[in-house]
Each structure stands twice: as structure tokens, then as C-alpha cells.
Amino acid sequence: MMLALGGCAQKSAEPEEKMELPKPTAAAPPKDTRPVVLCFGDSITAGFGIDAGETYPDVLQKILDQQGYKYQVVNAGISGDTTSGGVDRLNDAMKLEPKVTLLELGGNDGLRGIALAKSRDNLMQISRRLETKGSKILVLGITLPRNYGRDYIRDFEGMYKALAINSKYPFMPFVLEGVYNKPGMMQPDGIHPTAKGAAAVANNVFKYLQPLLTK
Predict the structure, then answer these.
(1) Residues with catalytic annotation?
(2) Which residues of the chain have pLDDT under 50?
(3) What is the pTM (predicted TM-score) of this model?
(4) Spatial distance between the Cα atoms of 44 and 25, rounded to a whole number of angstroms
(5) Number of structural domains the chain divides into
């Protein structure tokens, strides 16, 4: 009896094997399947000098949400980018298959004195290729500081107008309309909008964008 009890005691002292349950994994966020509104531009689009969440594409997303438009706004702005840079990264933009593209490029071309014919060809290539992917194009024009000369500025501004007219694209002549030179709307460099200015840009852009959207 004693041996039997001792044997039982020894057996019960052995550690029990524990079954490990699989650890729960974090659920992946649902993929955003809303059609894309692509903001394809330079520092004005990227939001140079202002905080994340305050760029005009960020504010535009809030406006669309509030108005009941189910679109995803993608900020494809790169500070300092030129129209040639836009062509170089066009394949990545086309992978998004945007339903609408807001084309805001060329200001840096003008500031660097790049030949207008080259900028014009690049803008046409960007818009035409995006159009072949089913994207509607909204051209956002820009101008240059007055010291660049009246004739050059006239031809530069006319580049956007000609693109819009020849291709039958809707056209916002000046992306900084109602913002440029207004107190509190522009940063000290006189080129980039403040957060307040970016919000105004978004509201102004929406007026041109709205006819291209569906609910």
C-alpha cells in the first residue's frame, strides 16, 4: 500500500503538458475601395510648411465626406517637383486608377526657366495617359512672380489655358485664387499657403471638382 501511494504521489508531481492556443492576430484594416480623386502636384499640393492633415487634399477629403461624396482623396504632391518629375512618377499614379485627377504642376518649371514647350508637352503627356486610364482631368493653373516679365508670365499662364481648351478639360485658372496676397493666407515666402490658405484652396477647388463627381 505504501509503495502504491508513493508511486501515485510521484506520478502526480510530474508537470502537465500545456496546450498552447494560437495567439490572436490584429485584424487588418479594411481596404479603402472608394474611387480615387488624385491630387497630382508639387509643394502646394504636398503642403509645404504646414502640418500633416492641413494640406488642401486633406481638407478636400473632409469636404467630400461632409457632402456625402464617397471618394478617397490621394495626395500625390511632391515639393519641388517639375512636370518632368511628374512624367517620371506617372506609372505609380496610374496604378491608383483615379476617377478624377487634379493636375497642379509646372510652377517649378517656370521658376527654373524651363522651356515652356517642354513643360507643355509634359503636362499633355501626363493628362493624356491618365485619361486613357479613365480619369477625368481638372487643370489647376498657377502664375509666376511679377518680376519674371509680362510676356513670359502671359505665355506661362496661357500654357494651362491652352491645355484645358484643346483637350476640353475643366480649368481653374489660378489654384491660389482668393488666397494669394491675402493676410493670413500665405506663408512669408509668398508662394505657399498657410493652413488657413490651404483650407480656402480646398473649398475653391471643390467648386470646380464637384461637377465631375457622382454620389
Answers:
(1) 43, 189, 192
(2) 1-12
(3) 0.85
(4) 40
(5) 1
